[in-house]
Every structure is written in structure tokens, then in C-alpha cells.
């Protein structure tokens, strides 16, 4: 990518939070939008079958964020029985660079978690690269803990943390009606060193 394109791709866009429209997965026309965002921003390559698996079986758990008709973020999830627990799983979460740090990912993921909770999930899990400070901070604020470290989990050789949110989470409840940014919501932090990770299984 040349420097000009790179600048355009990262330059912040001015917008009010109310201008962002959140919609749940609405059919095949949303699939290329999701795929394009995820392919751009996540290190793991996914086939169209993987995307279809998620959005066909759990359309109610996938959301897209639009600004003036442009798709700027998405979350893709599933849920089901895992051993003796009914659990939700966040597979993909992406917000394009010019729209980051304005709460869009928090809103997307909170919407999915709310549906999971209403559907009877007892917990939510996901994996994040141990180097992904932004994602670890975001999930930490929502009350996720680091349940496991998975060595060389990704194709690029990077380790993952398995993150887990056990319901009920007061942080999540307090963040559901609106996105909060108060002191209290920063209690679960981003900076827990790996040695403090707890193995839950
Ligand atoms: C991780 C990612 C999804 C976060 O998206 P985001 O929309 O920037 O996330 P949020 O805005 O909800 O939260 C991030 C930050 O915005 C801040 N924020 C939240 N709401 C805000 C608001 N209304 N105004 C200003 N800042 C806000 C948060 O406090 C947080 O602050 P920090 O950057 O100091 O940690 C995004 O960086 C991304 O797509 N990364 C690449 C893909 C990826 O890593 N996905 C996760 C895989 S596990």
C-alpha cells in the first residue's frame, strides 16, 4: 500500500456516535461487507464457508455498524453447548481504523453478548492474540478474564489468550443501556501479566 492510501485508511473521521447505525445480520448482501472488513484487519484467513457457518446458523449474533451507508465495523459470533455449559463465542470483531476508539467495537460486542445472555448462555469466550493490547483492553473493561494461554495458536505463530466472561457481570450490565466511560469501567484492566492468568477448566 502506498503512503497516500495508508494515510487515507488511518485518518480519523469526524462523526457523532448517533450517526452510527447498528444492524443485525440481514442476509447474503451483508456477507461481502463482513468478509472484506475481517480480511483487511485480522491475521487469520477465513474461507467463505467459515463466514457462512456463523452467519447462517446464528444471524442474530452478528452485527454490522454503518456510517453514512459505509460498513465500518462488524462482530461475528456463535453459541451452543460446550461440555456442560451453554456458551457464546465471539469469532471476529473488527472496526476500520478511521472509526476506532469511539466505542463502536464496544457497542457491537455488547449487542452480541446481550443476545447471548438472553438466549441462556452462561458464559462467553473468545481468543485474542497476546500482543493485541486494544482488544485485550476492550474485553477486560467488559469483565472478561484471561482463562488460558494457548501457545502458537495462530498461523502466524503468535500465542493467544482465551478470554472468558462469566454471567452475571456487573460491568456488562452497567454498560448495556449506553456505553460508559467512567472510572469504574476501567477496573478490570488490560495490564494483567500472563503469570496471573487463571486456568478455569
Ligand atoms: C480491537 C478493535 C475491534 C477495537 O475497536 P474500537 O471501536 O476502537 O473499540 P472501542 O472504541 O469500543 O474501544 C477502544 C477504545 O475506545 C475508547 N472509547 C470507547 N468509547 C468511546 C467514546 N465514546 N469516545 C471516545 N473513546 C471511546 C475506549 O475507552 C478504548 O480506549 P483505549 O483505546 O484507550 O483502550 C479495533 O482496534 C480493531 O478492529 N482491531 C483490529 C482487529 C482486532 O484486533 N480485532 C479483535 C480480535 S480479538
How would you explain this protein's 3D organization?
The chain has 201 residues and is an alpha+beta fold. The chain has one domain: Gcn5-related N-acetyltransferase (GNAT) (Aminopeptidase, 3-Layer(aba) Sandwich), CATH 3.40.630. 29% of the residues lie in helices and 27% in strands. The chain has six helices and seven strands. The chain has a seven-stranded mixed beta sheet with strand order 1-2-3-4-5-7-6, sandwiched between helices. It starts with a helix and ends in a 26-residue tail after the last helix.
Number of alpha- plus pi-helical segments: 6
**Secondary-structure element order, N to C:** HEHHEEEHEHEEH
How helix-rich are the residues, as a percent range?
Answer: 25-40%
- Radius of gyration equals 17 Å
| CATH architecture heading | 3-Layer(aba) Sandwich
The count of β-strands is: 7
In the CATH scheme, the class would be Alpha Beta
Mean pLDDT: 86
Structure summary:
With 201 residues, this protein is an alpha+beta fold. It is built from 6 helices and 7 strands, in the order αβααβββαβαββα. It has one domain: Gcn5-related N-acetyltransferase (GNAT) (Aminopeptidase).
Topology, element by element:
Elements: H1 3-10, E1 20-24, H2 31-41, H3 48-57, E2 63-67, E3 70-82, E4 85-95, H4 104-118, E5 123-129, H5 133-141, E6 145-150, E7 160-166, H6 170-175
Bound molecules: coenzyme A.
Provide tags for this entry:
201 residues; alpha+beta; Aminopeptidase; 7 strands; 29% helix; globular; binds coenzyme A
Amino acid at each position: 500500500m502506498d503512503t497516500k492510501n495508508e494515510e487515507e485508511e488511518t485518518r480519523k473521521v469526524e462523526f457523532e456516535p448517533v450517526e452510527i447505525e447498528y444492524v443485525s445480520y440481514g442476509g447474503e448482501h451483508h456477507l461481502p461487507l463482513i468478509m472484506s472488513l475481517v480480511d483487511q484487519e485480522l491475521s487469520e484467513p477465513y474461507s467463505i464457508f467459515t463466514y457462512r457457518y456463523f452467519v447462517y446458523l446464528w444471524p442474530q449474533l452478528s452485527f454490522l455498524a454503518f456510517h453514512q451507508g459505509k460498513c465500518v465495523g462488524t462482530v461475528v459470533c456463535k453459541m451452543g453447548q460446550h461440555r456442560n455449559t451453554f456458551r457464546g463465542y465471539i469469532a471476529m470483531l473488527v472496526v476500520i481504523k478511521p472509526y476506532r476508539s469511539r466505542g463502536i467495537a464496544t457497542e457491537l460486542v455488547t449487542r452480541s453478548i446481550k443476545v447471548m445472555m438472553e438466549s441462556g448462555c452462561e458464559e462467553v469466550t473468545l481468543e485474542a492474540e497476546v500482543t493485541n493490547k486494544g482488544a485485550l483492553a476492550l474485553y477486560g473493561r467488559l469483565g472478561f478474564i484471561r482463562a488460558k494461554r494457548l501457545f502458537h495458536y495462530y498461523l502466524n505463530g503468535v500465542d493467544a489468550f482465551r478470554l472468558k466472561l462469566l454471567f452475571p457481570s456487573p460491568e456488562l450490565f452497567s454498560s448495556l443501556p449506553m456505553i460508559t466511560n467512567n472510572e469504574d469501567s476501567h477496573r478490570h484492566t488490560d495490564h494483567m501479566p500472563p503469570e496471573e492468568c487463571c486456568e478455569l477448566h
